Amino acid sequence: MHGWTGKLLRIDLQDESVKVEDIPEEILLDYLGGRGLGVKLYYDSVSPEIEPLSEENPLIFAVGPLTGIAPMSGRHAAVSKSPLTGTILDSNSGGEWGKEMKYAGFDAIIVQGKAERPKYIVIRDDEISFESAEHLWGRDVEYVTGKLEGLGSVAAIGPAGEKGVLYAAIMNDLTHALGRGGLGAVMGAKNLKAIVVRGSRKPKVANVEKYKEAMMDMVKLLEASPPVNKGLKVFGTSMLYDIVNYLDVMPTNNFNDVHFDGGEKLSGDYIITHYNIRHEGCWGCPVKCKKKDAKRDIELPEYETIWAFGPNIENGDYEKVVEANLKCNRNGMDTISTGATIAMWRELKGENYLEKVEEVMEHEDLKLGSMRIARKYNAEDKRTDIKGLELPGYDPRGLYGQALSYATSNRGGCHLRAYMVAPEIIGKPKLIHRLNPEGKAGLVVIFQNLNAAIDSLILCKFTAFAMTEVEYAKLLSAVTGVDFRAEDLLRIGERIYNLERLFNVRAGFSGEDDTLPEKIFSGKNALSREIFEEMLKEYYEFREWRNGVPTEEKLRKLGII
Amino acid sequence: MHGWTGKLLRIDLQDESVKVEDIPEEILLDYLGGRGLGVKLYYDSVSPEIEPLSEENPLIFAVGPLTGIAPMSGRHAAVSKSPLTGTILDSNSGGEWGKEMKYAGFDAIIVQGKAERPKYIVIRDDEISFESAEHLWGRDVEYVTGKLEGLGSVAAIGPAGEKGVLYAAIMNDLTHALGRGGLGAVMGAKNLKAIVVRGSRKPKVANVEKYKEAMMDMVKLLEASPPVNKGLKVFGTSMLYDIVNYLDVMPTNNFNDVHFDGGEKLSGDYIITHYNIRHEGCWGCPVKCKKKDAKRDIELPEYETIWAFGPNIENGDYEKVVEANLKCNRNGMDTISTGATIAMWRELKGENYLEKVEEVMEHEDLKLGSMRIARKYNAEDKRTDIKGLELPGYDPRGLYGQALSYATSNRGGCHLRAYMVAPEIIGKPKLIHRLNPEGKAGLVVIFQNLNAAIDSLILCKFTAFAMTEVEYAKLLSAVTGVDFRAEDLLRIGERIYNLERLFNVRAGFSGEDDTLPEKIFSGKNALSREIFEEMLKEYYEFREWRNGVPTEEKLRKLGII
Fold it and tell me: Residue B258 and residue A19: Cα distance in Å, rounded?
C-alpha cells in the first residue's frame, strides 16, 4: 500500500441515484488515471457486444493524478464504445472542466442508464443534482454554456449529439471538444444535455519539494523548446500548415492528392499577420496554443480543422473555414469527421456542404460519416477512414510511421495515438526519416505506449515537444508518492494499449482491420502495400500479437489476465 | 556558389615546407568540417594499404564551421589510419586548441612526412615555424605544455607516443585528449612532439541576427535539459556510474560480469560530497563538465576512466583511479585502452598493473593493446575489443542498440559513434527499450549519421541531450549563410559514414569484422547471437550495404562515386 487513493462517482440517469466508491489502488498503479483508468473501468463494466447508443452503454469521464496540479494538465478523458467505429474509444479534451472535476474530488465518473426526459447534471463537490434540460434541448452549445456556466464548468452536447450524428462531440468550456468518435451521440442517447461541475478542493501532492523540482524542470524545458515557444505559442497548431504542405503530406481533395496549391491564406504566417490574435489556454497552461480573433471574439480553427475544410475540399478561403469551425463547435460536431464526410460527398456527388455544414445533421447519409456513405454508394475504394474513423490531415503516403500508427490505432484513423507527426515532421524528440520503413514498427509501439501513458496522467501531448518519459516519471512520482521510473510509464501505456485491443478483439475486430484505405495503396503517390505489410508484420512481432490479437502470454505478462 | 570558404594548411615535416590552399566549396558543402572534412581529405590523400606508423601516413587536424563560434564548439578532430585498428580513424577533443586553430584561420591542417630529429611546430596566424624538440623528447605532457604554453595552445604527445604505444593519445591543453586509436603514435612516428597554435582572427558569421536567435535557442535548451543542468554540470560524466551499475550494464572484471559490487566510492554522488570540486570547461562551454580536485589542483577522471581502472579490474579505490588517470594523461595514453589492456593481462596472467600503468609503455605485449595480447597468448575467446579498439564502459549485453553500434563502428569498439547511451540509458532525446532488438537497426543508423554530422560541425556530443537536428541545422545555416535543413545534416553524416566504410573495405575489412567479442555471446549474461545477427542484417538493409560493403548504387546516391 502506498496511500495513493482515488474516488469513483457512479451516476445512474434512470433512477437518478449516485454512489461514491474508492478506486482500488492496484487499478491506479496499473492504469494511472484518465484514458487508462477509463478503459479499465469500461472494460470491467460491459460486454463487448454492447450497442453504443443503447441506454446500457456507460459513458465514463476520468481525470489523472496530475490533472489540476501540473502545468498543461487541464484535461479530462472520456471512454465508451464508439457509435462511429464500434471500437472502444477514448477521447480527451482541454479547458477547465477536468480541473473542476478533479477539484470536486473525483477521479472517474461513470454515467449509466438513460434519463426519461432531457436532463443535465450539476456536480458541486459532493453535491450532485439532476436538473431538467427541457428548455435547453435543441439549443446549441453556446446557448447552453451561457445558461449554465454560472454553476460551473459546462460540458454539453449540441443538436448533433441529440440527433445521433455519429461523429457528434461533447463540447466543454464552449470551445474545447471531446471530438472524435461520437461520444456526443452516446451522451445524447442518454437524454443527457450537459454536465456542469465545480470543485473547491485542491488536490494534494505527496512530496512537495520533489514536485517543485520536477515542475520547474518541466517549465524550463517547455520555455526552451522551439516548437513550443516559437510554434505553438505564436501560431498555435496552424504552425503545421506550411511544413505539411511543403513535405507533400497534405491530403488534398478527399485524399486524391498530397499537396494543395492555393492555400496561402491558410498558413500560420498569413493568419497571425492578418488577424488580431488573442492567445488563450487551458487551465494551468503557459503555452496558450488556442487562438482567437480578438476583434470578433471568436475562436480560430486548429490545424486539423483548417485542413478538413481547406485542402481536403480544395478551399483556400480561410474565412469559410472559420465559419464552418464555429458551426461545428456550436452544434457539437467533430470537425475532422465533418470535413472528411463532406469531402467524400463532394467527390461522390459533386455537392459541397462547406457553407452549410449544419445541414449534415439532418442528412440521412451525411450524419453517419464517410465510411457508411462509401459503403452505401458502392465506393469502398474511395474510403478515407480506418475502422470508420476518418483520417486527419497528415498523409500516410509520405509518413511511414504515421501510416503504421493509423492502421494499428485502437480507435481507428487517429493521429494522436502515436503522434508520429512529432518525430517525422517536427523533429521532436528526434527527427526520424519519414520515408524509410526500417525501425518504424518498434518506434510506433513505443510512441503508442508513451502516448497512452500521457493520456492517463493526463498531460497535454504537446509537452512531448519538450519532455521525455524521464521527466514525466519524476512528476508522477512526486505527486503520488509512488516511485515510478520511465520504464514503468511505458509499461503502463503498453498495458492500456493491450487492454483496448483485447476489448476490440472481443468486439469482433482482428488484424484485418489494421489496414489503410485502398486509396493510400493506389495512384501516383501510393504507399507500397508490400512495405506496409512488412512494417505491420514487424509491429505485431514487437507487440507479441498474432494477427492483431494479443497472445495469452503477453496478456499474462502485463497482468491483464 | 554560396561564398562559404575554407583554408587548408599543408605542412611537410621532411622539408619543413608549408602551403596554404583553398578548400573547394563542394567539399565543405558535402562534408562540413571536422571529422567529415578530415575523412574526405585523408581518403583523397592516401592508398588504403598505407602503413599507419610510416612517414607517408598523413595526420590531419580539422575544425568545423561552428568551431570557435557557437557554445560548446571548442573542439577539433584528427584523422589518420589507426595503428591499433588499421581502420580509418577520427578522434576529437575539447579544450582551447581547436578554437585557436580556427582563429589562426585554418579549417584543416595536413601534417605529412617525418622530421629527421624531434621537432615541434608553432602556428601563429600565418606564421608557421619548425622548432627543435630535442630538449622535450622523452618528457611528459605536463612538462612540455608548461614549456610551450606561453606560445599558444599546446597539443603534444608524451613518452607513450614516442615509444609507439599503439593506444598513445595526443593531449592538448594539458588534460584534453585525442584519445582513442593511437594517433599519438602516428605523431611520434613523425618525430613531432607538439603543435602549438594561437590565432587572432575571430571567424565571421554570415547572418548575425539568425545566429543570435539560433544560439539563444541552443542556450535555453541546454539550460533546461536535466542531464545537462543537473547531471554534467554538477557531477560531470561520473553521473553515469550509478545508473550504469544499477542497470547491470557495467562491464566488470574484463567483461566477465555486468555489475560491480564495491564501487560505492566511484559514484558521482560520493565524489562530489567528498572532494572540493572545481568545474572547468572547454572554450565557450556553459556546462563545464570537467571536474578538478581544487585542493590538489589535479583533474578528476571521466566516467570511462573510472570504469576502466575501477570495475573492469575490480578496483573500488577511487584514489587509485585518480592516480592512474594522471599517469595516462601525463604519458599520453588512452585511458580506456590502457585499462582494458591491463584488465586483459590481469585475467590472463594474474598480474595487476593498476598502480604501475606507466610501465605498460615499456612492456612488449602491453604496449600493443589487448587484442594483440589475446592473440599472442591464444586467448581469442577473452577478447574485449572490436577491430582492435577496446570496448568502453557500457556493456553491450544489456544495451542492444549500443551493441549494434559497437559492432558496426568504423573505428572499432567506440561508444561515441552512435552514442546509444543517450536513448538507452539517459532517455534523451527519447527513452528506447534497451533489451528489445526491434527497430534498433534503423535508429543506430540515424544516430551514427547524426553523430558524424555533429563531429563535423564540430559541437560537443552532449549538446544532443538538449538539441535535435533542427536546431543544429539552424545554427549551421546562420553561420555559413547556406540553407541547411535537418535532413541535410543527416545526409551529410550518412555520406561521411559511407566514405569511412569505403576506406575500410579497401583496406581489407568486411562484414565479418562487424561483430562483437566472443565473450559477449557466451556466459550467463550472454547476448543472443541470433538476435544480434538479425539486427545486423536489418542494419545492412537500412544502410543499403551488402555484407558490410556499401553498394555502388548507395555510393552513387551519396555522390561519393
Answer: 53
Q: Report pLDDT digits (tens) over A397-453.
A: 999 999 999 999 999 999 999 999 999 999 999 999 999 998 899 999 999 999 999
CA A512, A518, A520, A525 dihedral sign is positive
d(CA B555, CA B557): 5
Strands B7-12 and B108-112: parallel
CB pair distance less than 8 Å for B486 and A431: yes
Question: B324-376, pLDDT tens digit by residue?
Answer: 999 999 999 999 999 999 999 999 999 999 999 999 999 999 999 999 999 99
The per-residue DSSP string of A434-483 comes to: TT--TTHHHHHHHHHHHHHHHHHHT--GGGGGT--HHHHHHHHHHHHSS-
3-class DSSP state of B117? coil
pLDDT averaged over 10-residue windows placed end to end, chain B, 561 residues = 90 98 98 98 98 98 98 98 98 98 98 98 98 98 98 98 98 98 98 98 97 98 96 96 97 98 96 96 97 97 98 98 98 98 98 98 98 98 98 98 98 97 95 91 95 98 96 98 96 98 98 98 94 96 96 97 94
Model pLDDT, residue B512: 97
Mutual orientation of helices B440-457 and B486-506 as an angle, nearest 10°? 100
Prediction pTM value = 0.94
The nearest CA of chain A is from the CA of B493 a distance in Å of 13
Q: Do B220 and A217 touch (CB under 8 A)?
A: no
Q: Please tell me the distance from the alpha carbon of residue B123 to that of residue B53, in angstroms, as a whole number.
A: 24
> Are residues A443 and B439, on separate chains, in Cβ contact within 8 Å?
yes
Top residue of B248, B405, B430 to mutate, by most chain A CBs within 10 Å, is: B430
Place of cell 553515469: B240
Contact with chain B for residue A430, Cβ under 8 A: yes
Q: Is B244 left (phi over 0), alpha (psi -120 to 50) or beta?
A: alpha
Give B-chain residues touching A249 at CB under 8 angstroms.
none
For A426, name the nearest residue in chain B, comparing CA atoms only.
B470
pLDDT for A439 equals: 85
All domains in chain A, ordered by first residue: 7-198 (3.60.9.10), 249-388 (1.10.569.10)
